[in-house]
Amino acid sequence: MDPVIIATLSTLGLGCGIAIFLANRFLPKEPEHLKRAEEISEHLPGMNCGACGHAGCFAYAQALAQDADVIVKSPCMTVMKDEEAVAGLEKKLGISIGGKGATKVAVVHCTGDSPVKYDYRGISTCSAAAQLAGGYKQCLYGCLGLGDCADVCPENAISIESEKKIAVVDSEKCIGCGLCAQACPNGLIEIINSDLPQYLGCSYLSKKNVTGGERCDVGCIHCKICFRNDPDAVEWDEERDLPDFNTKSKEALTAVEKCPKNIIIPRTFEIPSKDEE
Q: How far is the C-alpha of 1 from the C-alpha of 11, rounded, in Å?
C-alpha cells in the first residue's frame, strides 16, 4: 500500500481518537437524574396512560428519580398489581413500597333508573351525548351508558349493563388507575379505597339543579336519614347536599338499612335478610 495512504489513514485514526477523548473529557455528560430515570422506567409498564398524573411513563420515572415519595402520592396502579415490578422499583428507589396505593377501586355513583328524554342517534360516546342538552336521560347526573369509561379501562374491568345502560365495575379486576374517572363527562366515577364499606349510588346535586332535569325514582332525596341514624359513619356534605362515607370510612350498616331509596351500596358487608334478623 502507498505509504502516503497509510500515513493519511493513520493520521485520520489518531485525529478521531483524540476527538473522542476530548468529547468524553469535556462535553457535558447526561444528567444523573435522567440516567436514573431511564433505569427506573425499565420497571414501569410503558403504557403512557397518564393515570398517575404525569405525561407518560418516562415523565413519571423522571419524577421518581428526583423524589421517591411520588410513588406514594400518585402511585402507578398497574405497577402496584405486579409484585415483580414493585420489587424492582423498591430496589431501584431504595424504599419499601409495601403495596402503598394498591388498594384503590372505582365506583359509579349511579344506579341507572333515569327515564330517557329522547332517542339519541349521535356519536356513540358519553362525551358527545352530554353536549346535547346534558344528555338523553332526564337525570343530568346519571350514567349515559355509552362506554367511554369501558373503552379506556386497561383491565377490561368495566362493562355496560344491558338493561339499564349503566357502567358496572368489576372490583376484582379494577386496579384503581383513574382513567375511567377522567373519561366520564358527568363525573360519576370515583376512585376510593377498596376497603371503604359503602358508597352512594347517586350523584344528584339538588343545589345545582338545571331546568329540564330531574332525579330518577331511586335517586338520593337529601333527607339526611342516613346521617341522623348513623352519625359515627356518615358525614353530610353541605356543599353537595349528599352523604359522604369517605371521611370516617366506617361501616354504616344502619344508614344502609334506613335509606328510603336503598341508594347506599354496601361493598364490604352484607345486609342481613329479614329472616335472619
A: 16
**pTM as predicted:** 0.73
What mean pLDDT value characterizes the chain? 85
In 3D space, the residue among 195, 50, 187 whose CA is nearest the CA of residue 127 turns out to be 187
User: Which numeric CATH code is attached to 32-93?
Assistant: 1.10.15
Q: Which fold has domain 105-266?
A: Alpha-Beta Plaits (3.30.70)
Which ranges in 27-140 belong to alpha helices (H)? 32-41, 57-66, 70-73, 77-80, 83-93, 126-129
Give 5: exposed, middle or buried? Use CB within 10 Å, 0-12, 13-18, 19+: exposed
Q: φ and ψ at 213, to 5 degrees?
A: -105, 145
C-alpha pair distances (Å), 269 with each of 36, 98, 111, 118: 45, 26, 19, 38
By the 8 A CB rule, do 107 and 189 touch? yes
Which among 230, 47, 213, 201 is positioned nearest to 136, based on CA atoms?
213
Nearest-angstrom CA–CA distance, 118 and 121: 9
Cell of 211: 331546568
Q: Where are the alpha helices (DSSP H) in the chain?
A: 3-26, 32-41, 57-66, 70-73, 77-80, 83-93, 126-129, 148-152, 179-183, 225-229, 253-258
End-to-end CA distance of the chain: 104
**pLDDT for 233-267, tens place per residue?**
999 999 889 999 998 989 999 999 999 999 999 99
Inter-residue long-range contacts of 247-250, CB under 8 Å, 24+ positions, other chains counted: 249/193, 249/195, 249/196, 249/197, 250/197
Q: Tell me: the pLDDT tens digits for 175-193?
A: 888 889 989 999 999 999 8
Q: Give how far the C-alpha of residue 176 lies from the chain's centroid of Cα atoms, to the nearest Å.
A: 5
Provide the residue ranges of all domains of the chain, joining segments of one domain with +: 32-93, 105-266
